[in-house]
């Protein structure tokens, strides 16, 4: 009998932000598959097999999940945030294209992203049109990141950046800030939200002119306002209207 696969978003870090739908899936699962720190967030219990794996093996995890479901197992693949945002949902469907067995029942269970959790902490900086850009060049060339970033800035989008600066590629985020300075005014608001919703949370709100690469790491989501984003008291928000160009 074919089992099922559900891809669940565990939210940004606070267990209170995990949805009831995801909790129900975890309670029913026979197997949990995911990146090591995400699997560690799932409580072990009798009858539940945990399958933690290292980073950059997303397709292997997806194929493993499909194979287990083919054996009748109830599999939950865990991601942080939302599984459809730079996470495992896309990898599962990519694996499904070459899967030789029957297709199991698949469900994608949404979660709260770090970008949205960070936005809520400071107000409403994503209150108008916005885009999300993954700054990692593991799966795409940095030239494409630069192109998309420049077009987003020229289009006056608010932006959310994931994976801004790793130890192996610290120079990439410096280039991102350089492009922003070429396309945006120096007073453009930037928010650095690290480990949002966890006890280690730190949030800094600075103008673009004061932003430095060292303000970000791989646990930071960076939000950039559009040209109309402003502060009111302790809050940052982007108005819901936009003037004609």
Topology:
Elements (H helix, E strand, L loop, with lengths): L3 E6 L10 H9 L2 E5 H4 L9 E5 L4 H13 L3 E6 L8 H10 L7 E5 L4 H9 E2 L5 E5 L7 H13 L3 E5 L8 H13 L5 E6 L7 E6 L12 E5 L5 E3 L2 E3 L8
Helix pairs in contact: 3-4, 6-7
What does this 3D model show about the protein?
A hairpin with a 2-residue loop joins strand 12 (230-232) and strand 13 (235-237). The mean pLDDT is 94. The protein has a five-stranded parallel beta sheet, with helices on both faces. A five-stranded mixed beta sheet has the order 7-8-11-9-10, sandwiched between helices. Strands 6-13-12 form a three-stranded mixed beta sheet. It has two domains: 4-112, Cobalt-precorrin-4 Transmethylase, domain 1; 115-237, Methyltransferase, Cobalt-precorrin-4 Transmethylase, Domain 2 (2-Layer Sandwich). The longest helix is centred in the first third of the chain and has 13 residues, at 58-70. The protein is elongated, with a radius of gyration of 19 Å. It has seven helices and 13 strands. Helix 3 (58-70) crosses helix 4 (88-97). The chain is an alpha/beta fold and 245 residues long. It has helices at 20-28, 36-39, 58-70, 88-97, 114-122, 142-154, 171-183; strands at 4-9, 31-35, 49-53, 74-79, 105-109, 123-124, 130-134, 158-162, 189-194, 202-207, 220-224, 230-232, 235-237.
Cα(first) to Cα(last) distance is 58 Å
Please tell me what the overall shape is. elongated
Find the CATH superfamily of the largest domain. Answer: Tetrapyrrole methylase, C-terminal domain
Low-confidence stretches at least 5 residues in length (pLDDT < 50)? none
The averaged pLDDT comes out at 94
- Supply the CATH class of the largest domain: Alpha Beta
């Amino acid at each position: 009998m074919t089992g099922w696969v559900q891809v669940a978003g565990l939210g940004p870090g606070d267990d209170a932000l995990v949805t009831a739908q995801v909790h129900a899936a975890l309670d029913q699962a026979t197997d949990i598959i995911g990146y090591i720190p995400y699997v560690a967030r799932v409580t072990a219990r009798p009858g539940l097999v945990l399958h933690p794996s290292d980073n950059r093996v997303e397709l292997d995890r997806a194929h493993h999940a499909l194979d287990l479901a083919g054996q009748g197992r109830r599999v939950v693949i865990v991601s942080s945030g939302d599984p459809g945002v730079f996470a495992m949902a896309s990898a599962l469907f990519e694996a499904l294209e070459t899967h030789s067995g029957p297709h199991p029942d698949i469900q994608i269970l949404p979660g709260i992203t770090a970008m949205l959790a960070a936005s809520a902490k400071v107000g409403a900086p994503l209150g108008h049109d916005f885009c999300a850009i993954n700054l990692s060049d593991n799966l795409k060339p940095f030239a494409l990141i630069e192109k998309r970033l420049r077009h987003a800035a020229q289009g006056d989008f608010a932006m959310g950046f994931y994976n801004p600066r790793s130890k192996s590629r610290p120079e990439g985020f410096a280039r991102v800030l350089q492009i922003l300075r070429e396309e945006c005014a120096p007073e453009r608001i930037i928010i650095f939200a690290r480990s949002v919703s966890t006890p280690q949370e730190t949030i800094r709100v600075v103008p673009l002119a004061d932003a430095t690469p060292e303000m970000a790491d791989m646990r930071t989501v960076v939000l950039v306002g559009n040209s109309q984003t402003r502060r009111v008291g302790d809050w940052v928000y982007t108005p819901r209207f936009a003037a004609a160009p």
